[in-house]
Each structure stands twice: as C-alpha cells, then as structure tokens.
Design goal:
alpha/beta; TIM Barrel; eight-stranded mixed β-sheet; 30% helix
C-alpha cells in the first residue's frame, strides 16, 4: 500500500513533515514526498497524522482466570481501537504469570488472535507474595519483557534488592507498584476533603511517596535500572525528579486519569472513579503535568484495568479498583495536554511510542523508518467525539469519562502492514 499526504510525526528522529510511506510485506519500504504508486493500494491521508504505533507498557487483560472482566481477545481488540500496536499485560491473573507455562499460554493465545506486539510482564515474586523470587532466566527465555508485582507492592526490601540486581544483570527491569500497604489498607479514595465528606476511608498520598522514597534507596544502593508505574502525587514526582538529577537510572509513567481528573470529580459513591492509586488533588494533577513537561515522567501508559459493569456498579466500598483505558487514552492526551499547550504533539507522541520502546528495549516498535515493521497509528487531531462506554471493544463498558467530549481520534491502526479501520 501507499499512504499518501500524511503529516508524519516520528519522535526518535524529531521528524514532523508531510510525506508518503510505501509499505510492502509488512515493512516500510520507502518514505518520501510525491511517491508514485507501483501497482498498489493508495490511501490518501490528507489532513491526518501518522505516528509510530502506540505502545502501552502497563495494562491488564485479566486472562487467564478473570475472563468475565476481559479476555486476551477483547483486550487486544480494545487496544487496537485505541491505536496500540504493542501492549504489555501485567502478571496479576489467575494463575499468576510467574511461571513458564502460564506465560507461554498467554503468548500463544495472543498469536492466535492478532499480530499485535504482545510483551508480557512477569511477576517479581512467586504468587505476587514477598517470599521467593521467580525463575527469572526461564521466564526471559520464554518471552518476558519485564518484571512487576503490579497490583501488589514488593515490600520485602531484601527480596527487592536481590531481585533488582539479578533482573538487571540479564538486561531487564522491574516495574514498581509503589505503595505502602499498611497505609493503603481498606482505603477507597484519596484521603482528603472528599473522603471526609463521603465518610470513606482515605488513601493518603504518602502511601505512594513513602514507597517511592525507600525504593529509590534500593536503586541508589544497587545502581540498578528501575521504572515507577502510575505515578499520581506531587511528592512522588519531586522524589523521582531529584533521583534523575542525582544520576539514578530511573524512569516513570503516569496514566491519563491522573492528568484528566481529580478527587473533586468523584460523584458521591460512584465506583467508576475508583482507581489505584486514587484520583488525587488539583495540586497533584498539576505536578504530574509538570513531570510530563520536564521529562521526570517519561511515559503515558493506560493502566487499562477492566472489570465487569456489575462490579463497578457495586457500592464504592465494595467495588474493585480500575478503569478501561485503551479507548480513551489518545483523546484525553490531545484534549488535556496537547490542545491546552501543556505538551507539544511530538512530546506527547514520544511518551506513547519511542520512550516506552527504549525503556523496554522493544524491537520493531516506536519508530518510523525504511526497513522497520509497519507498526503505525493514524490519527485525526481535529475530530471531536463523545465517549460512549457502551460501545467499547473492551468488556468493561463503563467509564468515568462516559459522555466526555474529546478531540483527537484514532482512525487506523496498522500492525505489520495490516490495516484496522477504527470508528
């Protein structure tokens, strides 16, 4: 095929220009202006933007074990709808992805469904408990891309220290769910004026920053590489910023809900707004945006964490934490960061593409160049649309963003040269 007249944004090379892309056998064969068709399909993308395919380095597909919430098939469909050509599912399934058999099952299942880049993140410790490290080398040999106990913090500092050294020695990273579980226990939403008004047990912001601080000391001691997931507080941003200035090899991500909403948006006892970490204050939101602006926060990941509609309609005290994130991600980024002047378009796309590919050392993702796989996302920056969660490809057809008017829409997701038309 020949993609014509699109604005190509490629953060790796700082490219931003109108051009054409020729694709053959799933590979980018030529990039240039006014390319002549050679017996191939011509797709005119005038007014559209082509970026490297989006990479989500933090999501939950729930299979095996929780297929009522999401399956690998519906999760992949939702990711493609959101413009993602690569996804990294977390290990907190049932059974956990802490062994080669479960890891191989998920990879093979994904291959049956799509050629999407499927890069599983395996547990740091067996059963996501804090007792015994997984067989790291075996999991790497079978396709692990990184290690995380996401959903539970690693609070055994001896285990974390030894695991970080060993995992780093193989060239891989740990992704942290930074939380002090004793402070977070039984918490529902952020500790503050809203939790007090609603009479709900709060989760204080120090729950996150305290864990970040102690984990940074482990990183400092080991000289390791380490990545912080779903950063949500001002103090956490400050700690990571200083760590980077000190030369520590740390990276960080946040999710769209942490720069799009605050605790003030929580409507009474509506569990659609219940996430972990919880929605924080306006001051925290502004600090997260500042972290994105100055590079303290490297990546925007969705933390796609689907549940059944029934579960999310339970009383907020009983409902699970998490929201569907794939299909609203781009619209929230364009609407709340790019169109407000908080981030340039190329900076925002970098946090969705090249930055995660570098952190995880992903091949064939995050770049637009001759010889590379044609993993691309086509977007319309100007299209306005209204979020309708009932039409999500995800099984989780409920969202705090339902009814929101957003600007910026994925139009095509291209995976190894295969086009998926969106919307």
């Amino acid at each position: 095929m020949l993609l014509k007249n699109a604005r190509i944004i490629n953060p790796k090379t700082n490219l931003d220009k109108i051009s054409d892309i020729r694709i053959k056998d799933g590979i980018i064969k030529e990039i240039g202006i006014n390319l002549i068709a050679e017996n191939e399909e011509i797709i005119d993308l005038t007014g559209k933007v082509i970026t490297p395919g989006f990479i989500d380095m933090h999501c939950h597909l729930r299979e095996p074990g929780y297929e009522a919430k999401e399956t690998i098939k519906t999760g992949i469909a939702s990711a493609i709808e959101g413009g993602y050509t690569a996804i990294c599912p977390m290990a907190n399934t049932n059974p956990f992805v802490d062994n080669a058999a479960t890891l191989t099952y998920t990879i093979n299942k994904a291959k049956e469904i799509s050629e999407i880049g499927f890069y599983p993140i395996c547990a740091v410790s067996k059963g996501l408990e804090n007792e015994k490290t997984v067989n790291v080398s075996e999991l790497i040999d079978n396709g692990a891309i990184a290690f995380s106990n996401d959903g539970k913090p690693v609070e055994n500092m001896h285990l974390l220290r030894e695991a970080l050294k060993y995992i780093n020695s193989h060239g891989y990273i740990i992704i942290s769910h930074s939380e002090d579980s004793s402070l977070a226990a039984n918490g529902v939403i952020n500790e503050g004026k809203i939790s007090e008004r609603l009479g709900l047990k709060g989760i204080p912001s120090i729950t996150e920053s305290l864990a970040v601080a102690r984990e940074l000391e482990i990183v400092r001691d080991t000289n390791g590489r380490y990545h912080f997931a779903h950063i949500s507080t001002k103090r956490s941003v400050e700690l990571i910023r200083q760590a980077k200035k000190d030369g520590l090899k740390v990276t960080a991500e946040t999710a769209p809900h942490y720069f799009s909403m605050t605790e003030d948006d929580i409507k009474d006892y509506d569990a659609r707004y219940k996430v972990n970490p919880p929605l924080r204050t306006k001051e925290d939101l502004e600090a997260v945006i500042e972290g994105l602006q100055d590079g303290t926060i490297d990546v925007i990941a969705t933390d796609h964490a689907p549940h059944t509609v029934h579960e999310k309609l339970l009383p907020i005290q009983n409902a699970p934490m998490g929201i569907a994130g794939f299909e609203t991600s781009l619209g929230l980024i364009i609407t709340n960061l790019v169109n407000t002047g908080k981030l340039t378009l190329i900076d925002a796309i970098n946090k969705l593409t090249y930055a995660p590919s570098q952190i995880l050392n992903l091949k064939n993702q995050g770049n637009i160049d001759v010889g590379e796989q044609a993993n691309l996302t086509v977007i319309d920056l100007n299209e306005e649309w209204v979020v309708d969660a009932s039409k999500f490809k995800s099984k989780c057809r409920i969202s705090p963003f339902d009814g929101f008017k957003l600007k910026g829409k994925v139009k095509k997701t291209i995976i190894k040269g295969k086009i998926y038309n969106i919307g």
